[in-house]
């Protein structure tokens, strides 16, 4: 009741011992089945005055069959003396006011996610009794055009008469002539759905009468009236399935293994994650990450140490939040099978009660996504981009000398040959995943694809049912060959010519990582710059051998380009600033770093670009990258003497930072021991104010000899690194790998759709679909988006 931080039962004692805070408020929501009436039904609903907390409720239990009761009391440590709330007789007025304020406060997530909570879409008042004309209109799955003009985008389907008309620009910030609105004004038909947004999860619905986006709880029924199946998107001319044609099997069904009875899995490592609204990309990546032993050891294995040395506000500490999430996924405490009595009750009632609730990653998502314009939103995101973002956070927040993301690091050798001089340049860069192109030209079923495309176009032109979907079948070997093929470079800086020239670039592995992450480059842009996705099936191997892609270095007969750097071009208005101001590496603008990293540049190079351009934004940093990308140390970590070695490590909140000596002296001048000052500063990332809070919150301070020795060793290592900078941290070895996890995407682009993850555990494949964790029967390994391979020991 002093810091207003909340702790579970197993951690509240640790917080009490660490801080001396003794007064806590205990909060719990009880869930019970409602008492049944004589007829067997639930008793009539009445206002429940026992609910006073603004908490999330389980959607699966949010029905008339359950009731809730909130409990609140004060607990005084260390004697665990309890005072039930409200209790104005025993408590001082100030304490009563504080308790009432807590109990009546809004959920913090309403403040963090206003788009999700405060702006929830209302249900349209026209949805329940919407009139739909029986006019025989059937809508094809593509090829739409406005009925009053030639526009083929920003089209809206009127749910009363099936008219397809264009919207106005303010509907979704795209162009239109407003014919959908004119149609409403002429005929008064109130609801329309935007074509192109329809997925199994819903669609964008607009109410012209209510003048706002709305929810239509009967959308599936209303779309089916015009021959649109929300799951399959396969309309038929008469609204009935043609018995002579096969149903169109979508990737949604295949990837989620729909139609297969999946057995739920329980226990350690089989805990799901609740979907917070388009957070499946985060859930899938974190499930894969915490299936890797190095991450398990770094965070969950260090749980007591990380929690004990976390800052006073652990909600703002990356390592604490990673450990908390990892413990939730791996402990098994939140994934327990139903009791035998519960199973018998479900069979008797013929109403299976959901058992897998999963854990909510709200606090973790709030921390890792803050200050990031995309991940902090509630829109769908690219799992590959989030993976790189997470690696960046792990790099910046190392725990001691351990960095679990090193298992993904590898060196890429890039060879560029000047087309004019035929001379070559070899450079190395750090990367964390292998991006594999889709070799569409190598499809093994080209004739089938051509026939399908011709039939599809004819069906769209004549508004007939679409043919059964044909997916391109691509050999993995063709994609691997496309990865190693030469690439033309138009703006290559040829030091021999002292000018830009055309070149040919090839890339190979200078080292092989311990864990290889392979991304299939399924997403691209059409000629109209609309994001598109290749609908392909690739026979990804269980065993992968890439030893033939090992870099070979300078070959006999090759002549290297002279090592002459191109001139540095800096905007005139920035020169004075750059000359007179160097930023602290810990103040690097991470949003600019991520913008550059998402363009495909190495993470370390992006950090250097932002640093050396003085935090002037991604555009100026991009110019720096273009000028320096041919330098041998382009992708090596930023090293600045005076900042404790590598800057990316110096910006971390780990335990190996070397605090500034003047700050140490300032604390020791107050009467504290030097080791105590060092320990406090390292635990708080050398923040003086937080370090003093840390010291005062550890009155029982005793020198942990092992901890102090490790910190001193790390400090010495930093001094050594200043004298002799280390090369990029890689764990080279054999290029033989086996598949152990893959993430799949359903939908037309990374901005929409859904992600699930399959992981091989204990010899069998398991599907992680948000909070649901089940044994997989048919893992769709050919439809994945990101694949995780582990090295096979040689």
UniProtKB/TrEMBL annotation:
One annotated GO biological process: proteolysis
Domain UBP-type: residue ranges: 122-230
In this chain the USP domain maps to: 271-792
Q: Where is the UBA domain?
A: 587-628, 658-698
Coiled coil feature spans: none
Keywords assigned: Autophagy, Cytoplasm, Hydrolase, Isopeptide bond, Metal-binding, Phosphoprotein, Protease, Repeat, Thiol protease, Ubl conjugation, Ubl conjugation pathway, Zinc, Zinc-finger
Q: Which GO terms describe its cellular component?
A: cytoplasm
- One matching Pfam family, short form? zf-UBP_var
Q: What is its main location?
A: cytoplasm
Show the SUPFAM superfamilies listed in the entry.
Cysteine proteinases, RING/U-box, UBA-like
Q: Where in the cell is it found?
A: Cytoplasm
Could you tell me which InterPro entries the record lists for this protein? Papain-like_cys_pep_sf, Peptidase_C19_UCH, Ub_carboxyl-term_hydrolase, UBA, UBA-like_sf, Ubiquitinyl_hydrolase, UBP13_Znf-UBP_var, USP
User: Catalytic center at which residues?
Assistant: 280 (nucleophile), 754 (proton acceptor)
Q: What is its EC number?
A: 3.4.19.12
- Record's catalysed reaction(s): Thiol-dependent hydrolysis of ester, thioester, amide, peptide and isopeptide bonds formed by the C-terminal Gly of ubiquitin (a 76-residue protein attached to proteins as an intracellular targeting signal)
SMART domains, alphabetically? UBA (SM00165), ZnF_UBP (SM00290)
Q: Where does Zn(2+) bind?
A: 146, 149, 166, 179
One GO term in the molecular function aspect is: zinc ion binding
How does this chain assemble?
Interacts with UFD1. Interacts (via UBA domains) with SIAH2 (when ubiquitinated). Interacts with BAG6; the interaction is direct and may mediate UBL4A deubiquitination. Interacts (via UBA 2 domain) with AMFR; the interaction is direct. Interacts with UBL4A; may be indirect via BAG6. Interacts with NEDD4.
Similarity-based family:
Belongs to the peptidase C19 family.
Function statement = Deubiquitinating enzyme that removes conjugated ubiquitin from specific proteins to regulate different cellular processes.
- The name this protein carries in UniProt is Ubiquitin carboxyl-terminal hydrolase
């Amino acid at each position: 009741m002093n810091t207003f931080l909340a702790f579970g039962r197993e951690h509240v004692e640790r917080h009490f011992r660490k801080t001396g805070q003794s007064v806590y408020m205990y909060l719990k929501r009880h869930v019970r089945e409602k008492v049944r009436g004589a007829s067997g039904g639930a008793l009539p609903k009445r206002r429940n005055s026992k609910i006073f907390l603004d908490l999330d409720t389980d959607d699966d239990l949010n029905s008339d069959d359950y009731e809730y009761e909130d409990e609140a009391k004060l607990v005084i440590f260390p004697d665990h003396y309890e005072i039930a709330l409200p209790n104005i007789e025993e408590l001082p007025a100030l304490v009563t006011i504080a308790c009432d304020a807590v109990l009546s406060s809004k959920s913090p997530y309403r403040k963090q996610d206003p788009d999700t909570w405060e702006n929830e879409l209302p249900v349209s008042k026209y949805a329940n009794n919407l009139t739909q004309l029986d006019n025989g209109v059937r809508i094809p799955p593509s090829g739409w055009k406005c009925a009053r003009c030639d526009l083929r985008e920003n089209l809206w389907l009127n749910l009363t008469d099936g008219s397809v008309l264009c919207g106005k620009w303010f509907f979704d910030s795209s162009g239109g002539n407003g014919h959908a609105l004119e149609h409403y004004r002429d005929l008064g038909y109130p609801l329309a759905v935007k074509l192109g947004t329809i997925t199994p999860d819903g669609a964008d619905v607009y109410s012209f009468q209510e003048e706002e986006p709305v929810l239509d709880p009967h959308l599936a029924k209303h779309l089916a009236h015009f021959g649109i199946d929300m799951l399959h998107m396969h309309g038929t001319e008469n609204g009935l399935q043609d018995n002579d044609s096969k149903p169109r099997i979508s990737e949604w069904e295949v990837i989620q293994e729909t139609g297969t009875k999946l057995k739920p899995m329980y226990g350690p490592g089989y805990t799901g994650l609740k979907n917070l609204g388009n957070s499946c990309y985060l859930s899938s990546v974190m499930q894969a990450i915490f299936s890797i032993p190095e991450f398990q050891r770094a965070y969950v294995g260090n749980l007591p140490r990380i929690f004990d040395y976390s800052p006073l506000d652990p909600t703002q500490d990356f390592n604490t939040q990673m450990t908390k999430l990892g413990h939730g996924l791996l402990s098994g405490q939140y994934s327990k099978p139903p009791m035998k009595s519960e199973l018998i009750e479900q069979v008797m009632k013929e109403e299976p009660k959901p058992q897998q609730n999963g854990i909510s990653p709200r606090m973790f998502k709030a921390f890792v996504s803050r200050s990031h314009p995309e991940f902090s939103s509630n829109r769908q995101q690219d799992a590959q981009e989030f993976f790189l973002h997470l690696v960046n956070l792990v790099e910046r927040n190392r725990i001691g000398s351990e960095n679990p993301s090193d298992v993904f690091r590898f060196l890429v050798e890039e060879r560029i040959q000047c087309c004019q001089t035929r001379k070559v340049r070899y450079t190395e860069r750090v990367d964390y995943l292998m991006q594999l192109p889709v070799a569409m030209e190598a499809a093994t079923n080209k004739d089938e694809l051509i026939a399908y495309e011709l039939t599809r176009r004819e069906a769209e032109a004549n508004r007939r049912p679409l043919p059964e979907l044909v997916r391109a079948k691509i050999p993995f070997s063709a994609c691997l060959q496309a990865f190693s093929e030469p690439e033309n470079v138009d703006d290559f800086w040829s030091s021999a010519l002292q000018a830009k020239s055309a070149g040919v670039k090839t890339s190979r592995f200078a080292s092989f990582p311990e864990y290889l992450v392979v991304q299939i480059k399924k997403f691209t842009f059409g000629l109209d710059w609309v994001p598109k996705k290749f609908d392909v099936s690739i026979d990804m191997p269980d065993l992968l051998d890439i030893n033939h892609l090992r870099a070979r270095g300078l070959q006999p007969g090759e002549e290297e380009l002279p090592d002459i750097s191109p001139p540095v071009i800096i905007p005139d208005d920035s020169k004075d600033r750059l000359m007179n101001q160097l930023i602290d590496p810990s103040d690097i603008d991470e949003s600019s770093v991520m913008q550059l990293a998402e363009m495909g540049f190495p993470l370390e190079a992006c950090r250097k670009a932002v640093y050396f351009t003085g935090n002037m934004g991604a555009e100026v940093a991009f110019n720096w990258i273009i000028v320096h990308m041919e330098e041998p140390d382009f992708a090596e970590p930023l090293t600045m003497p005076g900042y404790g070695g590598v800057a990316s490590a110096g910006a971390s909140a780990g335990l190996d930072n070397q605090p500034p000596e003047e700050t140490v002296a300032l604390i020791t001048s107050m009467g504290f021991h030097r080791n105590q000052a060092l320990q406090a500063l390292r635990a708080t990332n050398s923040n003086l104010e937080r370090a003093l809070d840390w010291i005062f919150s550890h009155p029982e301070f005793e020198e942990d000899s092992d901890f102090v020795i490790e910190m001193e060793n790390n400090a010495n290592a930093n001094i050594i690194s200043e004298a002799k900078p280390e090369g990029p941290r890689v764990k080279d070895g054999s290029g033989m790998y086996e598949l152990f996890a893959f993430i799949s995407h359903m939908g037309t682009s990374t901005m929409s759709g859904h992600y699930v993850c399959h992981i091989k555990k204990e010899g069998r494949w398991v599907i992680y679909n948000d909070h649901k964790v089940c044994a997989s029967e048919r893992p769709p390994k050919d439809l994945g988006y990101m694949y995780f391979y582990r090295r096979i020991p040689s």
